[in-house]
Amino acid sequence: MPHTSARPTPASAHRTVAVVLAGGSGQRIGLATPKQLLKIAGKSILEHTLTIFEQAPRVDEVIVMMNPGFVSDAEAIVRGAGLSKVTRVLPGGTSRNATTQLALDALAHLPAETTNVLFHDAVRPMLSQRVIDDCVTALGSFEAVDVAIPSSDTIIEVDDDVITDVPVRSRLRRGQTPQGFRLATIRDAYVKAWDDPGFEATDDCSVVLRYSPGVPIHVVAGEEQNMKVTQPVDIFIADKLFQLASSATPEFSDEDYAKRLAGATVVVFGGSYGIGAGVADLAERHGARVFRYSRGATRTNVANPDDVAAALEQAHSATGRVDFVVNTAGVLRIGRLDKTDPETIEEALRVNYLAPVHIARAAFPYLAQTGGQLLLYTSSSYTRGRGEYSLYSSTKAATVNLTQALADEWSQDGVRINCINPERTQTPMRTNAFGDEPAGSLLSAEKVARTSVDVLLSDLTGHVVDVRREDPPGAVTGAPRGETEGAK
């Protein structure tokens, strides 16, 4: 019997299952490995996507429909990431429709009237929690839900390369996923569809629209960043979007700090003043054993690998562990490159780039034992080299690339690495370079320190975390403005 109206059902009575569709082969973009297994920001695209649903409060269970030749790879990702909501990894079919039917078969044991199912492309790894929540909410009133965004381009219809129609753009939307359904609704639509010899559909909402035309399909507002990795350029764009992602870093309370930092060992290079001192003070106040190293206080030269190794060994010998390593040490030298003497150039390269390299190499064995994190610092100038900042900008760009590369290298070892990108911050280093600046025009070192500790306690890896005066602490944006020089 056709459905003629939405039938409200209390959302609390429903169980929501997310079906992640990961059956692609990667051949469309010339890859030997499925694109959902490519790594971005230290994790495979599939892991990023599954983690989103793992963290979604209103999703109860996750099923992965995987390319049949890579089921074991997906299972290894689930185990390694500790994704407890993923109950099964199943082989997908040879088409989108066949894969959906296999998923429906796997859900046959669930009550059809009180089960919601969300179908989501595995290669949309930047889905927001807001979209998921809106979909589940909408399924309390509607039997089918799509996600879409307005079309910013004019869409044309053509026949043999000749325009035949130009639809009104205001009525057009670009479809995304997830697509959500009451289980009974999508199951019924597919039963009818398979009876049609000409059945073919590119998505599941079109199946409901065609074979259950009386069911209204509600549209939830999507987001531009919820892109699908389909073409080679999408891999590059997705990588940049992760770097500039708008998802918020978890913010922890003082009680959380006390629980998570008690008994931890924190090593801070550049810990005598500024941001480094702020991080050290905050961690120490909440029960961590903090080891501060700097050239002035401990005669530790971060550009010297032996000094770095000795500092980490000292901390480990004293406490038996190293959980977090933070490097805020840096030098800011301003001036034309052709007017800069070789000694200044060497110093800038050693302190601003080689030091993070040495610290990363020396810290890794300790952090691998504890599943810890290395935290580095960049500047808004990393996105574009500017006159008289050539050394500083280029070394800070290198630090960002180092962060992303090591997140990939270390992902299987359980070691995280992130990079803080503070807006112009009130620190002694900045004062030495620029003198006194107007009150209120600079970010406080304390705010950067607080965000730094939040990142240390988070599960993030491979992120550039932008800290601004006007944003909530921990916005993972990394979207620097051209007029700022994020010197610490």
From TrEMBL:
It comes from the Bacteria. Residues 468-488 are annotated as: Disordered. SUPFAM superfamilies: NAD(P)-binding Rossmann-fold domains, Nucleotide-diphospho-sugar transferases. The record marks R28, K35 as: Transition state stabilizer. It catalyses: 2-C-methyl-D-erythritol 4-phosphate + CTP + H(+) = 4-CDP-2-C-methyl-D-erythritol + diphosphate. Gene3D superfamilies: NAD(P)-binding Rossmann-like Domain, Spore Coat Polysaccharide Biosynthesis Protein SpsA, Chain A. The record marks R169, K228 as: Positions MEP for the nucleophilic attack. Keywords: Isoprene biosynthesis, Nucleotidyltransferase, Transferase. One of its GO terms (molecular function) is nucleotidyltransferase activity. Pfam families: adh_short (PF00106), IspD (PF01128). Belongs to the IspD/TarI cytidylyltransferase family. IspD subfamily. Catalyzes the formation of 4-diphosphocytidyl-2-C-methyl-D-erythritol from CTP and 2-C-methyl-D-erythritol 4-phosphate (MEP). This is 2-C-methyl-D-erythritol 4-phosphate cytidylyltransferase. It comes from Streptomonospora nanhaiensis. The gene is ispD.
